[in-house]
Amino acid sequence: MLAWLMPEQASVQAPRVDAIFLALTAISGAIVLLVVGLVVAFSIRFRRGSKANRDALPSLVAREFEIGWTAATLFVFVFIFWWAASAEIRAYVAPKDAIEVHVVAKQWMWKTQSSNGAREINELHVPVGAPVRLILTSQDVIHSFYVPAFRLKRDALPGQQTETWFKATKTGTFHLLCTEYCGTDHARMLGRIVVMEPEDYARWLSAQPEGDDLAHAGERLFAERGCAGCHAPGSGVHAPGLAGLWGREIPLAGGRTATVDGAYVRDSILQPKRDVAAGYEPIMPSYDGLLSDGEIQELTAYIRALGAGPRASRTPGRPPLSSRVPGAARDRSPAMVPGAPVDDGPAPAGAATRP
């Protein structure tokens, strides 16, 4: 519909966005026509020298009309707000079986890494019909991840993580742009999303150079940076263990609570004294400036893996993370091919409270 006016629709979100846009355009056009029509009609009927009676309408009718017009306008506004807000909120909540992709923006490129370790620059390969969850951050300034055919736009912010998701409905290659002015080569910050049939995607994935997936890379980094000296089971330092921690609501000093998710883990690494877990001293040093955004993503993936359920998939040929971290939960690597089972399961009882 209106192919000459609207870009190609290639995701499940695109029809919703287009419907809102067209509805707003139609309502705005109707209001403009009504106002212009009344102005022209009144200008002719009540022009200078006209014999039209300016007092023909009683004041009661004019007041009722004004009240009805105001109420109708308010109703339309509330309806449009609800409609658009509900569509926007759905863009934040990815399906549980979504493929997880980490996106790091920097001047002037997009770096993507899937949970199985596949890395790309200015490209992202995904299977058609599978939900894809994007976790975005920036290494320098604000960028904006924009795919016109998907009607997808989300800012990548320095020092923060933002999320969005999409499900492609067509195979093909689609433009990836940055729509936030980010410097002199902003216009050249281009990329592409390659949507493939699931079988072709599986073959492409198997042909990628082997490398650590995010969780195993995070496990190695966890040991190299000395995190295991405090957070590993049996450590002499009074610090929380990490097994089974992901997704739990934990108490903080001062009576507040927090949910252990990506944003919380990031804050705990960069600003450890801001939200101190109840029962622990604020002794953890800040790693601000010592870890890159990619390394923080790897550590986050490792902590998430320690809280996975019993039936989560595992990278073939690798021992589970739990076999090298006593007391940890089972390994987790989100399914990269549609249909693979993923189950986060319940968190173990009595697990520690904070990374």
From TrEMBL:
Cofactor(s), by name: heme c
Enzyme Commission code: 7.1.1.9
PROSITE patterns linked to this entry: COX2, COX2_CUA, CYTC
Subcellular location: Membrane
Record bears the keyword Transport: yes
InterPro entries: CcO_II (IPR045187), CcO_II-like_C (IPR002429), Copper_CuA (IPR001505), Cupredoxin (IPR008972), Cyt_c-like_dom (IPR009056), Cyt_c-like_dom_sf (IPR036909), Cyt_C_IC (IPR008168), Cyt_c_oxidase_su2 (IPR014222)
The entry's keywords: Copper, Electron transport, Heme, Iron, Membrane, Metal-binding, Respiratory chain, Translocase, Transmembrane, Transmembrane helix, Transport
Compositional bias ranges of the Low complexity kind: 337-355
Cytochrome oxidase subunit II copper A binding domain boundaries: 96-207
Broad class of enzyme this protein falls into: translocase
Transmembrane regions listed in the UniProt entry: 20-44, 65-85
Domain Cytochrome c: 213-307
Annotated GO biological process: ATP synthesis coupled electron transport
Catalytic activity: 4 Fe(II)-[cytochrome c] + O2 + 8 H(+)(in) = 4 Fe(III)-[cytochrome c] + 2 H2O + 4 H(+)(out)
Residues covered by region (Disordered): 309-355
The protein's role, per its UniProt record: Subunits I and II form the functional core of the enzyme complex. Electrons originating in cytochrome c are transferred via heme a and Cu(A) to the binuclear center formed by heme a3 and Cu(B).
Family: Belongs to the cytochrome c oxidase subunit 2 family.
Protein name: cytochrome-c oxidase
UniProt source species: Methylobacterium oxalidis
Lineage: Bacteria, Pseudomonadati, Pseudomonadota, Alphaproteobacteria, Hyphomicrobiales
